[in-house]
Amino acid sequence: MTELAELPATPGAARTQGRPRSSRAHEAILEAVLDLIEEGTTVEALSMEAIAARAGVGKATIYRRWAGKDELLLETLVKLKGPPTQPVGDSVRADLIRLLSVVGQKDQRAVRVMPCLMPEVSRSPEAYRIWQEAITEPRREVMREVLRRGIAIGELRADLDIEVTVSMLISPLLLHRMVRWNPRLDEVDDLTEQIVDVVLRGVAA
Amino acid sequence: MTELAELPATPGAARTQGRPRSSRAHEAILEAVLDLIEEGTTVEALSMEAIAARAGVGKATIYRRWAGKDELLLETLVKLKGPPTQPVGDSVRADLIRLLSVVGQKDQRAVRVMPCLMPEVSRSPEAYRIWQEAITEPRREVMREVLRRGIAIGELRADLDIEVTVSMLISPLLLHRMVRWNPRLDEVDDLTEQIVDVVLRGVAA
């Protein structure tokens, strides 16, 4: 771990050359949060001291950037997961397969970190809010858009429940890729396609 | 917490009167495991010392009953979840609704404990094996039986993938009831029925 706090000070450089030292500290702090959670530190037990020590920065460096632990955790999760995949406007089926094929697969680190957040998500309303805002809601929203389009073009039943349908599409993949809920699904090559086809047949107009 | 180890010894009573002291210690040990996990102790950090202290028994009392932590945890989870609900042989639809209506709802304690096991399940092959053996596999098996019956009577497509179908039926309910994946589903009264109906339409013969 680079001791960023001990890097030689280069006065002026920070502002004029893309703030390299600043952004390195920023990255190191986000990485430190992920490292600690991945190793088993609960969100509750996660302290600014531990994060600062792991990132090799002073606590003041963290507080200059984030008002508190919640804000820092939120940014860390948003960065970990990245922006949701966007539909391209193909067929409803092709767009759903495109969105679902990345569920739990973009990043091995996310696969390791997400289950570690579940105890906290179920215990703490604040952790739940952050998880919803940073991760689950933006992903549901892109999928709702595709389903609304399917209804508009008359492909899907006008009275389908969009929330239930989104959950039916994402949940089996999420549970399997995050915690390998059923090991036998490892052998199913076309899992995403099968799920999309069963649901689309189930909600066809 | 009753200090069971300090109960007055009643020689002979244990064997002739249904072993009341013994079974109370047994229950207290299982309860202690659940308490500790619920409060945030990871399976990894769970120690026989802590369990013994919490249950008010000596460590020897634990080791007389279980060979090790894995066996103790397995029995605790089996007891927590109870045996899977059995189908009654109604229509396929009615049986699926019966089996699914209890997913994540039998016991509020299970709802609190299960998310706490997820970090361990994803980190430790041993915790994963125990979770599969004690909880997920017996529940999948009763549901497979109902689907096989549906195929046999010609109601469901003969070439449906049973593992995928089981996962599509259980996963949305599991994710919602364990970690409230989508808060908007709270307002859906007939969630189980909707899921069963979409899947059955999707895999109809």
From TrEMBL, chains A, B:
<feature type="DNA-binding region" description="H-T-H motif">
    <location>
        <begin position="47"/>
        <end position="66"/>
    </location>
</feature>
<dbReference type="InterPro" id="IPR036271">
    <property type="entry name" value="Tet_transcr_reg_TetR-rel_C_sf"/>
</dbReference>
<feature type="region of interest" description="Disordered">
    <location>
        <begin position="1"/>
        <end position="24"/>
    </location>
</feature>
<keyword id="KW-0805">Transcription regulation</keyword>
<feature type="domain" description="HTH tetR-type">
    <location>
        <begin position="23"/>
        <end position="84"/>
    </location>
</feature>
<dbReference type="InterPro" id="IPR001647">
    <property type="entry name" value="HTH_TetR"/>
</dbReference>
<keyword id="KW-0804">Transcription</keyword>
<keyword id="KW-0238">DNA-binding</keyword>
<dbReference type="InterPro" id="IPR050109">
    <property type="entry name" value="HTH-type_TetR-like_transc_reg"/>
</dbReference>
<dbReference type="InterPro" id="IPR009057">
    <property type="entry name" value="Homeodomain-like_sf"/>
</dbReference>
<dbReference type="Pfam" id="PF16859">
    <property type="entry name" value="TetR_C_11"/>
</dbReference>
<dbReference type="InterPro" id="IPR011075">
    <property type="entry name" value="TetR_C"/>
</dbReference>
<protein>
    <submittedName>
        <fullName>TetR/AcrR family transcriptional regulator</fullName>
    </submittedName>
</protein>
<dbReference type="Pfam" id="PF00440">
    <property type="entry name" value="TetR_N"/>
</dbReference>
